[in-house]
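U., I forgot to send this yesterday:
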Amino acid sequence: MATQVIDVSTHNGDIDFRRVKAAGIDNVIIRCGFTGYGRSHTLNKDARFEENYRKAKEAGLNVGAYYYAVALTEADADREAAFVLSLLKDKQFELPIYYDVEDVHDTRAAGVLPQNMQGLSKAQLTAIVNRFCETVEKAGYFVGIYSGKYWFRDELDMSVLNRYTVWLAHWTTQTDYTGPYGLWQYTDSGRVDGISGDVDMNYLYQDFAPIIKRLGLNGFPKQTGTEEPAEPVILMGDVNGDGVVTEDDALLTLRRSVGLEDFTEAQTKAADMDGDGNITAEDAREILRKSAGLED
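Result:
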């Protein structure tokens, strides 16, 4: 069942997150910063990021973050990633960190960059997005990509980026986007108590918080005792599990081949010398040869 998520920035003004929580909203994604359109390509913290993060946490909401990108090269993506990591430091996020890729600003206006992200080739744009996401992921964060339906469909090579969770922007009552997504922004004109004016509304389809906490991502310590048990090491031919391969193992295998023994899964793996999935007299013969030192 989908749950409601809002996403906010300084444009939403002073937010009363306790009223937001009381209105039934448990999740918020906060803009942490953005890159400016000017030729200086400045990196900027959202003016209300710290305030919004603190208030949302105090109200008991699950928090994620996003950064508005204007990267035109992989070097730009490196700068943005390093800046975002500095903003996230010493904080904890129950939801992913998203790279907001939608830059279509008017390049004809005076003083702006001579290019926008939409004007890049699919290969260039994909490489930039992958560079940012890969860098932030390696720093210990659960990373996602925010963009519109047509960008995901036409501008980005999702076969390269499919390891990252998708936050889909498609303002409609029922999206026809066919790719996978964990979060869907369905309107920019929602209303929630505690926020003055319109706010972006989303449906969350994946329960990120327990995954992030269990794996120790997004500033959380890794939970102990949650590691998957290691696959036991199987000594081929050691059917009885005593650590050596002897004639007894060959005899057990021969008896199993004619239905006189029942094997566990581990015994079956140890006895299946030729890897064909069946226990036969040939497997018993190979084990006997191994016990006599005639096989490795």
